[in-house]
Each structure stands twice: as structure tokens, then as C-alpha cells.
Amino acid sequence: MEDLKELITKLAADNALKHGKASSKAVLGKLLAIRPDLRPKARELISLVEEVVAEVNEMPVESLRNISPQVKSGKKERKRTWPSLEGAEEGKVVTRVAPEPNGYPTLGHAKGLLVPFIYARLYKGKFLLRFEDTNPRVEKLEYYDAIRDEFLKLLEAAENELGLSPGKWDEEIIESYHLPEMYELAKKLIEQGDAYVCTCPAHVVREKRKLGEPCEHREQSVEENLELWDKMLSGEFGEGEAHLRLKTDMKHPNVTLRDPGIFRIIEAPHPIHGDKFRVYPVYDFSVSVMDSLSGVTHAFRSKEFEPHVDVQLEILRKLKLRKYRMIQFGRITVEGIPLSKRYIRPLVESGILEGWDDPRIPTLRGLFRRGILPEAIVRFFYELGPSKVDATVNMGMITAINRKILDPKVHRYMFVPDPIRASIDELATPAEAKVQVHPNSKELRRILVREPKVYISQSDIRDLKVGDEVRLRGLVTVKVRSVNPDEVSLTRSKDQKIKGVRIIQWAPLEGGVPARILVPLTPYSYEMLGGYGEPALKDLKTGDMVQLIRLGFARVDKRKPFTLILSHK
Length: 569
Ligand SMILES: [Zn+2]
What we know:
The protein is of the alpha/beta class. The strands form seven sheets. It has a seven-stranded mixed sheet with strand order 12-25-26-27-23-24-13, covered by helices on one side. Strands 21-18-19-20-14-17-22 form a seven-stranded mixed sheet. Strands 4-5-6-7 form a four-stranded antiparallel sheet. Strand 15 (431-436) and strand 16 (444-449) form a beta hairpin.
């Protein structure tokens, strides 16, 4: 018995630290959750719990902390639990995230953002955001802004959740502004005899690289190459007619290293520079040069680029540029939900999805619109760690974290899906119902019932028989008198304190707010629940989060028609 009291005291202290005051109901719930063996004795435990909670609510905060030492006050200062970064020195680490502005970021990009950010902050270093915008055909201005907005939301959340400050990048670099410098470096390579302009058609280049045979252009003089390079820049060659290749070894065992192309012509307007440039570096060139020039010490990239590491090192060696550490990390896939733009784009273009922010897809904006908090995404990736292996994650892992963050703070509301009218005999009106805004709070919301008519859900009526009793949350306990297809007749129960009756949600006929709840199922489908909510729903704003009693957590998506998106149970 003493042990039990100790356990209850600890739970009450936890609860009080979290919410200011402990609630007997919450403490009892928690107790029965961790000690299911006590469930048959729940009723006898109530008085003990109430007694302990009353004691705990009189205690000063300091004593509560002694009882419940794992709950600390103030901002959470996280200890560094991530594996240390090889060769990293405090204050000298520079990392970056380098997105290409060719689409809206997805959950997969969140790892590429958070891993280098977290390391930069853990080592009190610098974190860069660099737009790799040197493939204009697929890039658009709107994507730069989307990336900035959504990355910032995650980094601010990382500051709040993990205490990694400042929750922002230290510098933004737009790679395309550095094209003139890259042209200079290309010229330097030509002058050193380390690069040549090849005008072979692509299929010939591919074949010869496979066979390890040089083409005639490999023997051109520096002067010839410089002249051809100028022609590439000035527009005398069309797309695909010429490219600059690095001179390495046409018989190298790594085929990627056999005279790889480093600059090519792309005849598409650039989202920032329009037609100003027509020659663009390939990824291997721009990434290695930009990382080196911008001071990056540790560059994180996903594993698929591994065969290219040798090419990048060769470029740095020939240009005598500073080397840095290249660190591979595993990619993220979401079980059952494709993340690739190739999959999502046709669904957006065909109108099956409403756009890139559709809550059925795991783009960051889709997740936010669904009510997945940036904090939940940050916590998830922090706990996952910087793993080098590819991982398949389940949305349930993220929604579980989201629920943990939302549950203690969002208010509860009643919503009645598939409603049927119910009249209540012997209920004196106007009546006032009182519902708790949150199980851990004493705050009550009042609902005015002007006439004895309410909506209740058909699904609650389905398994009720005439004579059954049920409680309308916060209003009245009723007995079923008759059930007709369009109306249910109820009467106020004699015994209002009767135990063990089911509690159901309801909405007043007058003042009930018509609303629809969208339940995302797959990228193709929603389930839609229509019905009425309690009057207070109309005070919510777009973006507010609520818990709909017995349905789940939801985010207000728009007010006309009043629409919520179900985040998760
Ligand atoms: Zn050639």
C-alpha cells in the first residue's frame, strides 16, 4: 500500500509539473495504464488518488521536482548524444544543406537539412543554406521560397525542441551567382591541359567511355580548346553539341572517372538570370567547387552519390582547392507513400491532388497542413540519428510523436458525424451544458441549449435499444424511448448520477456548426465525414489544432465551408 501511494505521489507530481495543478482523473488514468492489474479496484482507488492529489497540489514546485526528478524546468538543454563527427573541432565546423530548387521539399529532405544543422550547432559551428540551381530546365523561383519557408519552420522548431540555437542558417548562398567564378576555374583547367571541349554526340561519348577509348578531341591543343570553350559560352553551339570534359584516364577502373563531362549547354531560361547563361556545370563540379570555396568542412550527402566521390576529389586536386570531409548518409522512405516528385507530379497535374500542399502526401507543406508539427518532425529525426543506412519509416512513428506533443495542450471539442436529430423529454430549457476543455484542466466551456433538441451520431444510435441509457457529455443522462429513421426520442433519466453509462458527443440543434472532416487515406483518397460540431468550433481560426472527442486530432483547414483535416487518432 505504501509503494502504491508512492507511485501515485510521483504520478501526481509529474502531472502537476506539467499542467500547474494535478488532476485526479488524469493521475488515475495514468496509474491504471501502467498498472492494469489495479483496474478492477479502480473505484476503491479514487479516494486514495484524490487524497494524494490534494496533498501534492499544496506542495511547492521544488518539492515536486524532488519527487519527479526526470521532469526539468525551463528550456530543454540536450546533451550531445549523437556520434561524434570525425575530425570535428568545436567552433570550426562548417556544414551545409544544398537543395536544388526543383520542387517542394518532402520528408526525405528534412533529414538532409537536420543532420548537418544539428552537427553544426552541436559543435558551435556554421550552417549554410546553398541553392544548387545550375540545372535551369527543372528549377523554378517558387521553389526557392518554399524551401526557405519550410526549412526555416523546421530549424525554428529545432531551436525550441532541442535548444540548438540559432534556429536558422547563418548564410544563404545561391550557386548560380557564382557561375562566372566557375567559368574561370574551367578556363584554368583548360590552360593546365586538364580539360577539353568534346563535340562528339552523347551516344558516342557513352560508348567510348564504356570501351575505354579516347575520342579525337582529347588531343586538341590548349588554344583550340580555349577557342571552342569561348564558342560554347557565346552561343555558337546548341544544346548537346559540345561539352567540356575533364582529362583523367580513359582506362580508369571506375567508369565514372573516365574523362567525365564537367560543363554542358542548357538552353532553358534560368529562374533568376533568364538567358544570361547557357553553360552550366554538372553536379560533381559545382558541388565540390562550391563546398570547397564556401569553407565547408563536413559535407553530408546521400549514398547514391558515392561513385562520384572520386570525380569530385579529382576536380579539387587539379584545381588545387581545399579538400573537406564527405560524409554519406542513408535516405528515408516512408512506408506505403512514395516521396518522389516523379510520383507526385502527375497526381498534382491531373487534379487528383489539390496541389503540393495536399495533406495526403508527405511534402513538408502537406504534412504541416495535415497538422503534423515541425517539432514532431524534428524530434523524430533527432531520435533517428544520423544513420548511414537507408531507412523505411512508418508515418505512425511520426504521428505518435505528434500526439505526444499535442495531447497535453490542445482543447477537446465535440463533433457529431452522420448526425440524427434527437429530442429530449423532460429537459428544462434553456439548459447549460458544461464540458471540460481538457481532461487536465478545470476550465469549462459552456454550451447553451435553447430547446430540448440535439444532434447525435447515427453510429452511436445503431447499437442502442429502447430503454438503454446514455450520457450526453456535460449535459444530461437520457433513456432511449424510440428510434426512427429521421429522429430519435430520448427522455431525461431519473437517476442522473448513474454509473457506467456510455458518454457520447452531441451538438445543439440551434447553434451547432456544420462542418466536414477530411480523413486522408492514400495519396488518391480521402474519407469525408460531415456533421455538426459544438458552437465553439466557429471561434477557431485556420491553422488551429483541436482534438475531436472520439475521432482524433485535427487541424482547421478553412472556415468556408468549415473544414478540418484529421491529423491522426
Ligand atoms: Zn569527342
